[in-house]
Amino acid sequence: MPAAAHALLTRYFNALNERDSRACLALLSDDVLLDINQGPREQGIKAFADYLERTQRCYRESIDNLQILTEPSGQRAACEFTLSGEYLSTDDGLPDACGQSYQLTAASFFEIRDGKICRVSQHFNLPEWLAQVDF
């Protein structure tokens, strides 16, 4: 089970790096939960698709140095990675975008059910990100 979870999350992060929303959404359960750093919980494929559309419009990001840790049943996993990006278009409630670059360590936690990702919880240091993009 941990090997299957590891492979699933590798495909998920590859899809994010390739900006392939269709491939990413195919890995999620219909009732997927999304907990965004400093934001409300969202639920469902439509909400996740909207999130991907917004992030692809506002940011150009790459995920590197990915470390995937799974527990023995393969139902939960944690990932740590380096998030490098460019802030392309102003996101709601955040500073104005003008192509600022950023790089920070981030983590995501996952719950997996029936071979699909059913919960994604994303965490990063928001004050550090703001310091890098808000001059």
UniProtKB/TrEMBL annotation:
Residues covered by the SnoaL-like domain: 10-119
InterPro entries xref list: NTF2-like_dom_sf (IPR032710), SnoaL-like (IPR037401)
Protein name as it appears in the record: SnoaL-like domain-containing protein
Species of provenance: Pseudomonas peli
